[in-house]
Amino acid sequence: MKKIKEFITNVKTWFTAMIENTFSDRKKTFKAIALIVFSVLFLIETGMILIHNSFYNNASDDILQYYTIMVDFIGGLKDGTVSWFNLNNYLGASFFSDVYYIPIDIFTGITFLLSYLMPIEVAYSVTELVKILTGVMLFAYYLSLKGMKNRTIFWMSIIYFIGGGTVSFMAFPVFLSLTVYMPVALVVIHYFFRKNRWIVPLFAMASILYDFYLGYTLLAFICFAYLIEYFKEPDFKFFRFVKETAIFVVLLLLGVVMAAVIAYPSILFIFEETYRRTVDFTDKAWIINVFGYNMEFFQPNIYIRILAKIFVEQKPIGFYGFENSYATEHFSLYISVIGFAYMNYIFFMKDKISKIYKFAILAAIIFM
């Protein structure tokens, strides 16, 4: 028994020393984050290949839609048969109808390169995991830019890695890319404040080329995040805020124009070649009269649903290794609930930044 206690004590001492050593240096912290995330993702992918003779996917329409179109596109690039008209989409459609499924970004390039080492389907699957690793490291980099402690950077990165917020992007492969582009947006805002304004239109252009369908979502996110980050900056001055915001918006619009070569024909295809049912929001709006002005919101049940979904059983990804076991299948669900509880602590804080986040959280629920 004494030897067992000594062994446990030695393990605790070794582990504590290792943690302290890791957190003593910024580079060591980043290496530890990368090692942990890579190891977990590597085990997930290899486990699915060896145990289920499959690969990481979302067990959703991504298999029927994204994978088939991406495989055709990469295959066409490799054998020189890629065309401006795709007979495999709908009953035959313009190449621009496929832009929603085939992001024009570095990750499509990674899939293309990996396809020389493995089947295209597996290459696409591995790229999805590369997105998660990249997004976590970019988030860690953003926290580093903000001067966070190494310990804070480490744990926030791990939470971002396994949090329900990340899982919610996994309905389709293209959605998962938001895990990367959203931290990039925060980094872009940081450098804009440091007068590196040239990076803003490049980000806007990259967002549209990545996916014109989700590009507007990213642009809305970066605008909302810009307001939060600006109000967090010291020495706030109203007229300077108006000037800087106008410059920021103009640069975003410049980036959208730069990406019009893809966005414009793609949007035209949707408007002209596909059926879209229109809905009159006014008939279904929840109207509240404030000082004589009618404010239109979604019906109250929509906002209740946002909170309810945090606590109801979901299956955002096809993690079949844990299927039929509620205790192990819903890690992300539990993390979401815990994260939601911790997030509410901000309403009991009284500093400037917590006040900004209180308003931002309530505003975000309204905008949803």
Give a verbal description of the structure.
It is a single chain. The chain is mainly α and 368 residues long. Helix content is 70%, strand content 4%. It has 19 helices and 4 strands. The strands form 2 sheets. It has a two-stranded antiparallel sheet. Strands 3-4 form a two-stranded antiparallel sheet. It starts with a helix and ends with a helix.
Tally of DSSP β-strands: 4
End-to-end distance: 58 Å
Average pLDDT over all residues: 77
Q: Can you give the helix content as a percent range? A: 55-70%
What percentage of amino acids are in beta strands? under 5%
| Rg calculated over all Cα atoms | 23 Å
Q: Please state how the strands of the largest beta sheet are arranged side by side.
A: 1-2
Number of helices: 19
Overall spatial form:
globular
What is the H/E order? HHHHEEHHHHHHHHHHHEEHHHH
Tell me about the largest β-sheet: 2 strands, antiparallel
- The residue ranges in which pLDDT falls below 50 over 5 or more consecutive positions are 316-323
